Amino acid sequence: MRPITILTIVGILSASLLAVVEDLTREPIAIAKEQMKRKAIEQIFPFPFDSLRTVTTEKTTFYEAYNQDNTIEGIAVETSTEEGYSGLIEILLGVSPDQKILDYKVLFHRETPGLGDKIDKPKFKAQFKGRTLENTNWKVKKDGGDIDELTAATISSKAVANAVVKGLEFIKEQYPKSSAE
Amino acid sequence: MNEALNIFTRGFVRENPVTKMLLGLCPVLAVTTTAINGLGMGLATTFVLLGSNVVIALASKAIPSTVRIPSFILVIATFVTIVDLLIQAFSPELNQSLGIFIPLIVVNCMILGRAEAFASRNGLWYSIIDAIGMGLGFTFALLLLSIFREVLGAGTIFNIPLVGEDASTILVFALPPGAFAGLGLIIAGLNSLEKKMGDKK
Question: Does some domain include residue A3?
Fold first, then answer.
């Protein structure tokens, strides 16, 4: 047989095998992604919730957590910034219905291990609890604001603050009525 | 059976892809920040190596030498994609931390090296032994380096903290320079150990 025939056969066999595997794993992958998201949302809300509704807009995705009586207990929003020390930082920000911060979780980052990656540690995150767009000067302390920056990771800290502000603004836009006075 | 043992120990010790041949160092240096990453990467690579060695040992006679390399790459890429999909489906956490390095197993020269140097010239049984020896040797080296780096750089082992959260660790071992330094120390340590054992004989 000519080499080209052999190569074609190898290609066809590979492609067929991959098609089968892709078909078998498509559903588990979708489920795994959904579970990862659900887990992240469960981590940022300090209460158990009954159901989750996803609202997708042009800018981002919102997740509304409802309790058994179908009242909204919390809103999570996907937000991000390109201003991290190594570029993109993606954050899932959770707020209460009156738009006070509950907690956030870093979904993606490439910050320096041991320095910038502390943006995902409870110690740094704790200071965001209860803050709103209005009650906080969203600059770092070094620049005269309210946010305690991480030692040797000011850029990462600023980036997180920016992403959080962006998230709060998304929420304010999407849910204008429930905004805190 | 002796020959099988010989092939296995060659992969694991005498021609260990990482500590002796210095092959496939990109993933070795890049993903060994935590023990779980190192172990995951090592086992994923072993799976690909096993798959490609088996297929190539069986099919090499049918493949003319002119299209040998592209065929091998196709086989390897197929197995890498399978591993990538399986990890995405069943271990999303590992997928998140290894990310791009799983697809990059394709360009790990160790795998093409074994296909070309061993599997295409030997039978199925020996090719399987070779893949297991080389693969576990690779995994072992990754695990050593990643434990070394995780303990010193992050103060944890398999994500279990060894020191308090506020304790300062030797950060450089978590960063790329620490990967080079750590690998150098481990190779030096293993070589001197081997030399000592050789002297006793």
Answer: no
Q: Is the dihedral of CA B90, B94, B100, B103 positive or negative?
A: negative
Q: With CB atoms and an 8 Å threshold, state whether A4 touches B86.
A: no
Residue A7 resides in a domain: no
* pLDDT by 10s per residue, chain A, length 181: 788 999 999 999 999 999 999 999 999 999 998 888 888 898 888 888 888 888 888 889 899 999 888 888 899 999 999 999 988 999 999 999 989 999 999 988 888 877 888 898 888 999 999 999 999 999 999 899 999 999 889 999 999 999 999 999 999 988 886 544 4
Contact A10 B71 (CB under 8 A): yes
Would you call A18 and B62 a contact, using CB atoms and an 8 Å cutoff? no
Q: To probe the interface with B, which of A5, A7, A85 has the most B CB atoms within 10 Å?
A: A7
B-chain CB neighbours of A112 within 8 Å are: 175
Give the structural domain span for A88. Answer: 51-174
Task: Determine whether the interchain pair B67/A3 forms a contact, defined as Cβ–Cβ distance below 8 Å.
Answer: yes
Dump pLDDT digits (tens) for B88-142: 999 988 888 887 889 889 989 899 999 999 999 999 999 999 999 999 999 999 9
Total-model pTM: 0.81
Closest chain A C-alpha to B47 CA, distance in angstroms:
15
Q: Which among B58, B60, B67, B35 is positioned nearest to B139, based on CA atoms? A: B35
- Across B156-195, b (16+ Cβ under 10 Å) vs e yields eeeeeeeeeeeeebebbbbeeebbeebbeebbeebeeeee
Is the residue at A81 inside a domain? Answer: yes
Count of pairs with CB atoms under 8 A, one residue in A, one in B: 67
Chain B residues inside the 8 Å CB shell of A35:
92
Is residue A25 situated within a structural domain? no
Our count of domains for chain A comes to 1
Tell me how far the alpha carbon of residue A81 is from its chain's centroid. Answer: 11
The verdict on B62 touching A (C-beta cutoff 8 Å) is yes
Chain B residue with the nearest C-alpha to that of A20: B82
